[in-house]
Specification:
Blueprint lengths: L25 E5 L2 E4 L11 E2 L2 H8 L46 E2 L5 E7 L12 E3 L5 E6 L9 E7 L7 E13 L5 E8 L4 E8 L6 E2 L15 E8 L2 E7 L5 E7 L5 E3 L9 E4 L5 E6 L4 E6 L2 E6 L13 E8 L5 E8 L7 E6 L4 E7 L1 E6 L5 E7 L1 E4 L5 E6 L5 E9 L4 E11 L16 E2 L5 E5 L5 E5 L4 E4 L9 E4 L5 E5 L3 E6 L25 E2 L54 E4 L6 E7 L2 E7 L6 E5 L4 E7 L5 E7 L11 E7 L6 E2 L2
C-alpha cells in the first residue's frame, strides 16, 4: 500500500525517539491510533488521526452475513461543530475550493467481504466489449468465463447466482462479450462468433440456459465486408435491442433490432454516423464521438444531424483546433461532462460541462482526465493526471505534468452545485502521458454505487479502493494482489464485481459508508513536483458562441466556528453545532479525540496565533493549554487522555525543511512540555 501502509504501534513509548518525517510523510502517535501523511511530495505537515480501538471495534473485518447492517459509531454527549458558510461563490475559472484545502479521505479497515473468486476472461477483448453484467434484481451475474481452448480470444457466457455467487453455470460458447440483460431479467443478449462461417453475430439466451437464439442467421450476419463486427448497446425495451455494426474505418452504425419481426432500423442516415455513442439517461439526446483526432457532437436521441463541438466541422471556429472526449451524462440528462485539449497536446485536458438546452459549455477543472457524475447529480468524481498546483487562496490552479509520462494520478470529489472540491487524494503513479488521447482509455473510470453513497476507483498500482462520499473515508479492496480491470456495482449497491486478467471476484459491500465521526483534516498547498516536469499554465480557453467570459474569482470569506459549552469555560471560544454533510470546517480548527473520550483536542487560530485547547465532553469545560509563538501541527492525544503529542516548528527557522520539526509531549493540562526530537 505504499505510504499509506502504516502498522499500529503497540506501546506509547514507541513514538518517543521518533519524530514526524515530512519527507516520507509518516508518523505514528499513539497505541492503536494511526496518524499518517499519505502525501509523498504532494503535501506536507498534514496529520489525519483515527481513533484506533473504536474504529477497530465498530469497523473491523466482519463476517459477510453482518455487512448489510454495519453498526454506526456514536459520539458522546458534548459540543458538536457545524460549517456555516457566510456567502456563496460565483462560478468562475479556476473553480474555487473550500477553505481549507480539500480533505484527504481517511484510510479505515476494510469493510467488504469476498464472496467468490472465479476463473474468468476479465480483460476486454475488444475496446467496446463488456465482460460482465448484473441482472436487474442483483441476484445474478453474467460474465465471460474461460473459453474451451485456453489460448482462444473467445470465452463462455457464464452465470453465477446469489447469495454466494460460487457455482458457475455455462450458458453459451464462442462468446466475444457484451452481455446485456433484458429489462425483466429473463434473457441475456451477447455478441458471439460463429466458427463455421467466421462471422460475428448477436444471440439471446434465457437466464436458465434454454432458448439459445441467433438473431443474425446465415448471411444476415454479413453486415460488413469483413467478419461482421457487432456490439450490443443494450435493451431499449423487452422487444428491441440496440445493435452496433461496422460501417468503415472509425465508423459504427447504431441500429434498432425488433425481435418480433427481425427488422433492423438505422438511427442515423448512412454517412452521418460516428465512432461511438452515449445516450442521455432519458434518451432524448446522444453524444457522438468520431475521428482519429477525437471530437464529440450532440444530436437528437432518435438521430438527425450532429452538431460537432470541435474539429473541422465545429460549430464555433475557435474550437477547430481542439480535441474533445466525452466523459459522462448528468442523471437528469440536462448536462454532460467532456474533456477538451489543444490538438497539439501543448496542455493537459480540461474538464468542461455542456448545457444541452442552452447549447453552451463552460470549463470546470484543468488537468482532469476522467469524470463521472453521482446518481443524485450533486457530486462529480474525477481523476487528475499530474501534480496538482493550488493557489495561495486554496484554489485549484493547474497541474504540473509530464507530456510523455509518468505522472501522478489523483482522485477527487467535486460538488457540482457549489462548484467546490471537497476531497482529493493522490492515487500513485501511472506511466501515462497526455500526448495521445487514446492513452486515457487505459484508465479505469471511477464507478458510483447506484445509491450514491460509495465510489470505487483504481489507483496507479491497479488496486481498487472503496470511498465513502458521505464520510470521506476509504479502504482497500483485497483483490488478492491482482490488478483490477473492470469494476461493476450491483443495482442494489450491496455487491461489487471486480475482474482481473484471469479472475472474477464478487464482494459484499456495506452500502451505508463508514459511519464514523471522522476528525477534520487540514492541509497546505502542495509543493511543485521535482524536475524535470512540464508546467502547465492555463491559456485562455476558447468559449462556445453562447458562453460569456468567466467572471473574476472572488473567494468567499471564511465560515465562522463557535463553541457553546454546557458550563462556563475558563476562556471564551467562538460557538458551533453539528458538522454538516460533506463540509469542511474552519482551517483554524483541528479536532483529535483520545480513545477513552476524556478530552477533545483541537487547535484554534485566534488573532493570528495558534492556541491548543481541550474540551471535556462530559461537561463542556474548555481549557486553553498553550499559546506559543511557535507553529503547532497535528496534535494527538494518548489513549488514556493524559499526554498530548504535537509537532512544533519554530518561526525562526525555515518551515519548509523537515529537519526543523520537533516532536513534543506535555501533560493534558499543558504542564511539563518537553521535546523528544
Amino acid at each position: 500500500m505504499g505510504t499509506d501502509d502504516i502498522p499500529p504501534v503497540t506501546n506509547w513509548s514507541q513514538i518517543v525517539p521518533e519524530k514526524a518525517n515530512f519527507a516520507t510523510g509518516k508518523a505514528v502517535f499513539a497505541t492503536g491510533v494511526y496518524a499518517f501523511f499519505p502525501l509523498g511530495d504532494y503535501m506536507k505537515a498534514t496529520c489525519l488521526v483515527l481513533v484506533g480501538w473504536l474504529a477497530m471495534m465498530s469497523l473491523g473485518l466482519m463476517a459477510c452475513q453482518g455487512l448489510a447492517s454495519l453498526p454506526t459509531a456514536t459520539s458522546p454527549a458534548g459540543p458538536t461543530l457545524v460549517y456555516s458558510p457566510t456567502s456563496t461563490l460565483s462560478p468562475t475559472v479556476p473553480i474555487p475550493m473550500p477553505v481549507p484545502v480539500p480533505s484527504i479521505p481517511l484510510i479505515i479497515p476494510a469493510q467488504s467481504c469476498l464472496l467468490s473468486n472465479l476463473p474468468a476472461k476479465g480483460e476486454k477483448l475488444l475496446q467496446q466489449a463488456n465482460v460482465l453484467a448484473w441482472s436487474p434484481d442483483s441476484h445474478s451475474l453474467a460474465f465471460l468465463g474461460p473459453g474451451e481452448i485456453d489460448d482462444s480470444l473467445l470465452g463462455t457466457l457464464t452465470l453465477v447466482e446469489g447469495p454466494g455467487f460460487e457455482t458457475p453455470h455455462h450458458l453459451a460458447s464462442n462468446v466475444v462479450g457484451d452481455p446485456a440483460w433484458s429489462p425483466d431479467g429473463s434473457r441475456i443478449a451477447f455478441v458471439a462468433f460463429r466458427s463455421d462461417d467466421e462471422l460475428g453475430t448477436v444471440m439471446t439466451v434465457n437466464a436458465d440456459g434454454s432458448g439459445l437464439h441467433d438473431l443474425f442467421p446465415g448471411e444476415t450476419a454479413r453486415t460488413d465486408p469483413g467478419m461482421g463486427y457487432k456490439a450490443v448497446g443494450g435493451w431499449l425495451d423487452e422487444q428491441r435491442i440496440l445493435i452496433m455494426t461496422n460501417c468503415g474505418t472509425g465508423c459504427s452504425r447504431p441500429l434498432q433490432l425488433d425481435l418480433k419481426d427481425g427488422v433492423l432500423t438505422p438511427i442515423f442516415r448512412p454517412g452521418g454516423e460516428g465512432a461511438g455513442y452515449a445516450w442521455s439517461p432519458d434518451r432524448n439526446y446522444v453524444v457522438v464521438t468520431a475521428g482519429f483526432n477525437p471530437q464529440i457532437g450532440i444530436a437528437s436521441g432518435t438521430g438527425g444531424e450532429i452538431t460537432w463541438l470541435s474539429g473541422h466541422h465545429a460549430h464555433d471556429p475557435a474550437w477547430a483546433r481542439f480535441w474533445t472526449l466525452f466523459a459522462d451524462w448528468a442523471p437528469d440528462g440536462s448536462h454532460f461532462l467532456f474533456l477538451q485539449q489543444p490538438d497539439d497536446a501543448s496542455e493537459p485536458p480540461t474538464l468542461w460541462v455542456w448545457n444541452v438546452e442552452a447549447g453552451s459549455g463552460s470549463p470546470l477543472l484543468p488537468g482532469v482526465v476522467a469524470a463521472t457524475w453521482s446518481p443524485e447529480g450533486d457530486t462529480i468524481a474525477f481523476l487528475s493526471l499530474g501534480q496538482p498546483h493550488l493557489g495561495s487562496d486554496g484554489t485549484w490552479q493547474d497541474v504540473v505534468a509530464m507530456l510523455e509520462g509518468p505522472n501522478t494520478l489523483g482522485v477527487g470529489l467535486y460538488l457540482w452545485p457549489e462548484k467546490q472540491i471537497i476531497a482529493f487524494t493522490l492515487a500513485g503513479e501511472v506511466s501515462l502521458g497526455y500526448r495521445w488521447p487514446d492513452q486515457l482509455g487505459q484508465l479505469v473510470k471511477p464507478a458510483w454505487a447506484p445509491n450514491g453513497n460509495l465510489l470505487v476507483y483504481r489507483d496507479g498500482a491497479g488496486i481498487a479502493w472503496i470511498l465513502s462520499a458521505d464520510d470521506l473515508a476509504r479502504y482497500e479492496l483485497d483483490a488478492k494482489g491482482a490488478s483490477v480491470s473492470t469494476l461493476s456495482w450491483s443495482p442494489d449497491s450491496k455487491k461489487l464485481a471486480v475482474s482481473t486478467s484471469e479472475n472474477l471476484m464478487v464482494f459484499a459491500v456495506p452500502g451505508t459508508g463508514a459511519g464514523l465521526p471522522l476528525p477534520t483534516q487540514t492541509t497546505e498547498p502542495p509543493s511543485p513536483a521535482p524536475s524535470p516536469t512540464l508546467t502547465y499554465t492555463p491559456s485562455p480557453q476558447p468559449t462556445a458562441t453562447s458562453v460569456p467570459p468567466s467572471p473574476t474569482l472572488t473567494p468567499s470569506p471564511l465560515p465562522t466556528l463557535t463553541h457553546t459549552p454546557s458550563s462556563s469555560p475558563s476562556a471564551a471560544l467562538p460557538t458551533a453545532t453539528a458538522i454538516s454533510d460533506r463540509a469542511a470546517i474552519s482551517p483554524g480548527l483541528n479536532t483529535t479525540m483520545g480513545s477513552s473520550w476524556h478530552r477533545i483536542l483541537f487547535t484554534y487560530n485566534h488573532a493570528g496565533a495558534t492556541e491548543l485547547w481541550t474540551i471535556d465532553p462530559t461537561n463542556g469545560t474548555a481549557n486553553q493549554q498553550i499559546r506559543p509563538n511557535d507553529v503547532i501541527h497535528d496534535p494527538a492525544m494518548s489513549p488514556s487522555g493524559d499526554v498530548i503529542a504535537y509537532i512544533r516548528i519554530s518561526d525562526s527557522i525555515d518551515p519548509q525543511s523537515s529537519t526543523t520539526s520537533e516532536l513534543w509531549l506535555m501533560d493534558k493540562d499543558g504542564s511539563n512540555p518537553n521535546t523528544r526530537e
